[in-house]
Model the fold of this input.
Amino acid sequence: MRTLSLVWLILALSVSAAHAGDLPLTPNLPIPDFQNRPQDAGPYDFDAPPRGMFRSITTAEGFEEEMGFRRTHEIVPVRPTEMFPATTAAVFIVFQLHQHYQAFQVFGRGFPDGIPHLDPGTAVTEDAMYIALEDESGYLKLFPPTGGWTPGRYKVLIYAGEEINEMNLMGMMRFTIVN
Done:
């Protein structure tokens, strides 16, 4: 039995050595040949909906929780739209995520986008959701500011990480409040 194991080991090593000798060597290639080429990658647009770890992201009137095919709770948008009445109780941002290997938070901070008499630099609404390791979806619930929604366009900056800072900005969602 021991001899048979030794024969298999020698055979495996000789096959591995034969395949290793077949690998092409590329001597003296410049370092840029091993890096991402600039012509293959476009610039990231922070003024657009987030990409990367987000499979999808949309504004909606609500959400439902469904059982996913892996027996996980999956959050799906209800009546996706970018137009909301001024009487809406909340605007939802519903998203699906790619696989991730660490828990984190998703933040949404809403600002008026060109609405007269409202400071575009002052946040009027925000929310955060903790994303556990097993979560594949989530939502943000943006309540109206004190006094209700002012008709006009709003932008929501989406961040991912442990806190809000300019380094973890992922992108921007927009919605419109109408009378």
Observations:
- Residues 24 and 100 are 35 Å apart (CA to CA).
